Amino acid sequence: MEVMSAENNSCCLNNGDVVEKMKRFGRLTCRKIWKVGKEDKRRVIHSLKVGISLSLVSLLYLMEPLFKGIGENAIWAVMTVVVVLEFTTGATLYKGLNRGLGTLLAGLLAFLIERIANESDHIFHAAFIGTAVFLVGAVTTYMRFFSHIKKNYDYGVVIFLLTFNLITVSSYRVDSVLKIAHERFYTIAIGCGICLLMSLFIFPIWSGEDLHLSTVAKFDGLAKSIEVCINEYFSDGNINQQEEKVKKYSMEMEDPIYKGYKDVLDSKSSDETLALYASWEPRYLRSCSWQQYVKLGTVLRHFGYTIVALHGCLQTEIKTPQSVRVLFKDPCNRLAREVTKTLKELSDSIRNRRKYCSEIPSNHVHEALQDLIDALKSQPRLFLSTNSNTNILLALATLATRQKSGKDFLVSLPSVNNDDPARLGLSHVLKEGDKKILRPTLSKNGITSLEFLEALPFAAFASLLVEIVARLDLVIEQVVELGRVAQFKEYSHDDVVINVSCDNNPRVESEFPSSHTAAD
Amino acid sequence: MEVMSAENNSCCLNNGDVVEKMKRFGRLTCRKIWKVGKEDKRRVIHSLKVGISLSLVSLLYLMEPLFKGIGENAIWAVMTVVVVLEFTTGATLYKGLNRGLGTLLAGLLAFLIERIANESDHIFHAAFIGTAVFLVGAVTTYMRFFSHIKKNYDYGVVIFLLTFNLITVSSYRVDSVLKIAHERFYTIAIGCGICLLMSLFIFPIWSGEDLHLSTVAKFDGLAKSIEVCINEYFSDGNINQQEEKVKKYSMEMEDPIYKGYKDVLDSKSSDETLALYASWEPRYLRSCSWQQYVKLGTVLRHFGYTIVALHGCLQTEIKTPQSVRVLFKDPCNRLAREVTKTLKELSDSIRNRRKYCSEIPSNHVHEALQDLIDALKSQPRLFLSTNSNTNILLALATLATRQKSGKDFLVSLPSVNNDDPARLGLSHVLKEGDKKILRPTLSKNGITSLEFLEALPFAAFASLLVEIVARLDLVIEQVVELGRVAQFKEYSHDDVVINVSCDNNPRVESEFPSSHTAAD
User: Which residues are listed as membrane-spanning (chains A, B) (predicted)?
Assistant: First the structure.
């Protein structure tokens, strides 16, 4: 009895479990559906557009007077809408025009083949059609491997092959095949017309605009990456904490640095697809600015690779002591701040479709770079001996100080500011002579020593920062070129005044929101 | 008269020009056609397969007895072949199965809708169909935005929408629509059958095999990049020559280093497409090894980013003097050689579908890494002063030497071999005392001095080499995992004997050519 009730209980529990699971699944699905729409509201609009277009085109078939005019072939209009109406206007135009062109050419070729085939008897006719189908099929398929055709006309070629086969093969049994083909072309044109109307005039979604916004987002992501990267490198947290953080990030892939640049790294194919579709959109045809966006994307990817390497410096096993990092914290911070500021200015200029004035901000970056280089130069020379195991200078220095003033002293010198401290700095010191140089002090911590090996990671970090500036120049070059090609508005002086203030968030809120420019 | 003859001449010339141009265009086109086929002979095979399939399926329509059995709808088989038969088996299966599933589900839903609609009067029937078309159109289109559906079933969803609309809309006018749908399904199945037959049994082209080979090629490309990179960095050519080379490369994009890694960097989308198709291929379904190839691809991309940064070191404006680079040439060269050797071994093990034995070669790499680290450690400590503008040690050293022996001398010391030269090296020197330390020599070149700034690029280079080794371990991890998941043959000891010989081209020619494994 007890056993049974227990079984009953577990059964009830199982039922409860199943209901609970179903409920949870339902909730998850609802949340997922909501999320997909919330991420990009245009998805909802596009879905409604497809529904409306299909209903509209169905009317051709469903309404008596329209059906009488067009007839059975109205179904081809429905088919066209399903296949051609895509998310963005560019994609719809690409597919629609390719479909139109493919159908037209296939019709012409089929007409030619039929004319030739009709001259012959029945069996030869069949053989002729079979051969034509084989040859056109093989040649057309081979053509799809040409990269230019593959890229721009792949869909058109498939439709060409499809239509050609439909017409040629049908023509063997049906005499009025050209009439049918003519009618179908007519209904396909209606379908294409509805698609173009829907995608060009009702809430149009432009691939070119997507490309534009994704480029802006890339700049923001890269700026964010550099900012976080520098902050983490010079943060005071101890090394173990940082390592744990890095481990955590690598498990969950949520590292904000990685998040900032990951979209840039893998942007090639999405950029190229968007640019392909944009190339069919009327507003981009004239300027060919989509090509420039692709070029800018390539330069940004290479910029991104350097940030990946910079990120790698944070994760390296050999750490440069915090005390050494602190020495260069200010110039590095300043340089990084200037670079991120420039990136944000570039993103703002593209967002607002204004030409970018490359001179003023770029100079700030180069000033900051010069600062960093000066800071690096101000360090004493390195001595590498060719018989690679001597510590001579170290020994010399120590000896010299010992001979003069005992065991544990270090000396300080007036600072030597000079463009070439390696040469002039030395002579300056020597001119000042013995009296000053060896004045003893008691500041034990005045000089930090570290192994060459320990200096490596910092050297790599600094070197990559310098590299980033070099690559930033290439990016600026492409942005200026973009402004020229895409005929952005002239640079106005007001922007500088706002942008030049060097706070942490120098982003200027866009005066011309992108939706405005998208609709014009 | 003269004018006329001159005109005639120019006219003839123009005609000649046109003919010449036409000829040249013809030659170019022929060469292009030849090249596309030569690059990948499977393209020719695929084109012939499509031609043959289309001819076969046309027979359904062209041959009297077959046509009597199947009728008008035979044309749908032709359509299916055009749309479904793709280059690789996986792609054909993906499209064929998606098409089949989409058609089936659409038919069922259409049947359900028709049952409900038939209960009502004519006008309500039309309204009901219109509403159904709108709703199904909108919902289906919205579903295409879910990433999982987009990735795996996008084509199926489009076919579902297409078939549903065709059947539902047609059913309003044609009573026997379900009979037609049934017949069409039948012919579509024939079309799909021919496609599957062609792609599974006649010269099959496997996406999984493409993914496999492209992975192998990536390893070879990366190895090549590192090899050339190191050779160029330590080549004796003067800096100007190198710069010219770099400029030439950047113009023509033919830099062998760039060529080696560029395919790796942008491999994400092609990898994912190949993996998607491979996931539909029967031989990969069981092991899910395609997922592991994608993971390996991700790790290889990150490995590639480090090589990009290494490549950047060659192009940097601040150059480390050749004399300093030479100091570290041997350990760097050895490390790079070991890394490329490991990469080639990895590529061989994947090519031959053998498990990779990670221990032996990896140790060689770590030995070489230790060598480099030792070489770096053997250099004297660096001194960085916190009041950052003093050249104190330099001055001290110079003074000490001046005081003892005049203006232009440098001293050499017996080498100090020790694990911690920073600490022990110093005491060793001090023990030896004054007598040895300040023994003057005349070898001016005994010690190379350089600015910290000049040391940066080399430090970055060395640091990136160390980083490469770290990333190589991650790559090895994934290759071992691949061997496990894809059930590669056990590692045999013979391979090591061949591979371990450390020449420049340690590639073992594959005993099991890939065509063999592809056909089994």
Answer: 44-62, 74-94, 123-143, 155-173, 185-206
Q: Can you give the pLDDT at residue B296? A: 92
Alpha helix positions (H), B378-492: 392-405, 426-437, 452-485
Q: Residue with structure tokens 């640095």?
A: A257
User: What's the pLDDT score for residue B239?
Assistant: 54
Phi, psi of A460 (to 5 degrees): -60, -45
Q: Which of B384, B403, B448 should be substituted to probe chain A, the one whose Cβ sees the most A Cβ atoms within 10 Å?
A: B384
CB pairs under 8 A between A and B: 430
> Cα(B260)–Cα(A216) distance, rounded to whole angstroms?
30
Please name the residue of chain A whose CA is at the shortest distance from the CA of residue B160.
A82
Name the residue among B43, B79, B463 with its Cβ closest to that of A460. B463
Its pTM surpasses 0.95: no
Give, for B333, the enclosing helix (H) or strand (E).
helix B329-351
CA separation for the pair B394, A504 (Å, rounded): 39
The burial of B108, by beta-carbon neighbours within 10 Å (0-12 exposed, 13-18 middle, 19 or more buried), is given as: exposed
Is the CB of A394 less than 8 angstroms away from the CB of B426? Answer: yes
Cβ neighbours of B270 in A, within 8 Å: 269
Decide: helix, strand or coil at residue A320: coil
Pair A335, A372: CB distance under 8 Å? yes
3-state secondary structure B178-232: HHHHHHHHHHHHHHHHHHHHHHHHCCCCCHHHHHHHHHHHHHHHHHHHHHHHHHH
Per-residue pLDDT reduced to its tens digit, B180-225: 777 778 888 888 889 988 888 888 888 888 899 999 999 999 999 9
Which one of A46, A378, A382 has the shortest CB-CB distance to B389?
A: A378
Kind of pairing, strands A447-450 and A440-441? unpaired
Give the Cβ contact number of residue B433 at 10 Å: 10
Angle at B52 between CA B49 and CA B55, to 5 degrees: 150
Beta pairing partners, A447:
B385
Q: In this predicted complex, what is the ipTM?
A: 0.74
A161 has pLDDT over 90 = yes
User: Shortest CA distance to A475 belongs to which of A356, A310, A318?
Assistant: A356
Q: Which residue of chain B has the CA closest to A124?
A: B62
Task: Inspect the interface and report whether the beta carbons of B437 and A395 lie closer than 8 Å.
Answer: yes
Closest CA to B323 of A38, A385, A466: A385
How is residue A105 written in tokens? Answer: 């050419």
- Indicate if the pLDDT at residue A434 is higher than 50: no
At B269-307, the pLDDT tens digits run 889 989 889 888 887 666 678 888 999 999 999 899 888
Amino acid at A93: L
pLDDT for B501 equals 36
- Which tens digits make up the pLDDT trace of A409-424? 332 222 223 333 332 2
CB contact under 8 A, B456 and A450: no
Measured in degrees and rounded to the nearest 5, phi and psi for residue B473 equal -60, -40
With beta carbons under 8 A apart, name residues in chain A contacting B387: 412, 415, 446
Cα nearest neighbour of A397 on chain B: B397
Nearest to A306 among B44, B51, B312 (CB): B312
Distance (Å) from the C-alpha of residue A204 to the closest C-alpha of chain B?
Answer: 16
Distance from CA of A382 to the nearest CA of B (A): 5
